[in-house]
Design a protein that fits this description.
Elements: E1 2-3, H1 14-17, E2 24-25, E3 28-29, H2 30-40, E4 45-50, H3 57-61, E5 70-75, H4 82-94, E6 99-103, E7 106-108, E8 123-128, E9 138-141, E10 144-146, E11 152-161, H5 178-181, H6 190-197, E12 202-206, E13 211-213, H7 217-228
Parallel strand pairs: 1-4, 1-6, 4-5, 8-12
Antiparallel strand pairs: 2-3, 6-11, 7-13, 8-11, 9-10, 9-11
Length: about 230
């Protein structure tokens, strides 16, 4: 699955006319780079969730034939459903087997084919050193991802998930969480991950290679420069 529904507010005005995953980085759209990597890892079916400027994705990426893939687009409506709601909305197309998730607004040289099997875990997260000014998201204790720790890392927006993470998903939210009670539900993925971390069922790894969060014009420029250099 590729997350591609977000508005990209911090990249405006670029994202007023082009969704973040379709922005070119060193001559190639971000989404195309993700599809290259997924196809190289042996993936054959991809779900892309869409909302903002959703009509641009199919003309730009097609049905996946160019990569030897089948792409299906899961439209969320005018308002994106956040990370958790977006994944929940796509589960009917993702099935019960583990699947790779890639955020559409990051780029990394993570080898997707080398991501480990989940075993009894509900997810496996790729973590990276925090960008300047960031305190990080989660801590890594061996191969276990923890909610707290002394040296927090940043979730890279890349991981392996299984649908069982969403079992009794409403129990991870407070009774007054309006998004979780909306129709369709709109909520973040982090509360589900944290609940599973407390049960020791989220694995992870630290990636020391290249990783770029294409979230601001400055970060986009940094990724452009790095990828243009090979």
């Amino acid at each position: 699955m590729i997350f591609a529904a977000g508005r990209g507010e911090r990249l405006r005005p670029l994202t007023d006319h082009t969704p973040k995953p379709l922005l070119p980085v060193a001559g190639r759209r971000l989404a195309e780079r993700h599809l290259d990597a997924l196809a190289a890892a042996g993936v054959r079916e991809v779900v892309i969730n869409t909302s903002h400027l959703a009509e641009q994705f199919a003309p730009a990426l097609g049905d996946g034939t160019r990569w030897g893939l089948t792409i299906r687009y899961r439209h969320e409506g005018a308002e994106p459903l956040e990370t958790g709601g977006g994944m929940l909305n796509a589960l009917p197309w993702l099935g019960d087997e583990p699947f790779i998730l890639v955020n559409g607004d990051v780029w990394s040289d993570v080898d997707l084919a080398a991501l480990p099997p989940l075993g009894e875990d509900l997810a496996h997260l790729v973590l990276v050193p925090p960008p300047a000014g960031s305190g990080g998201d989660f801590a890594l204790d061996g191969d276990r991802v923890r909610e707290t720790g002394t040296a927090k890392l940043t979730y890279a927006g890349i991981g392996v998930y299984r649908a069982a993470l969403f079992a009794d998903w409403r129990g991870a939210f407070g009774a007054d969480d309006a998004g979780a009670d909306a129709q369709p539900p709109r909520f973040k993925l982090a509360p589900l991950l944290i609940r599973a971390m407390r049960s020791g069922r989220i694995g992870g790894q630290r990636h020391a290679g290249r990783w770029y969060d294409i979230g601001t014009p400055e970060r986009l420029a940094a990724a452009q420069a790095a990828l243009a250099g090979g």
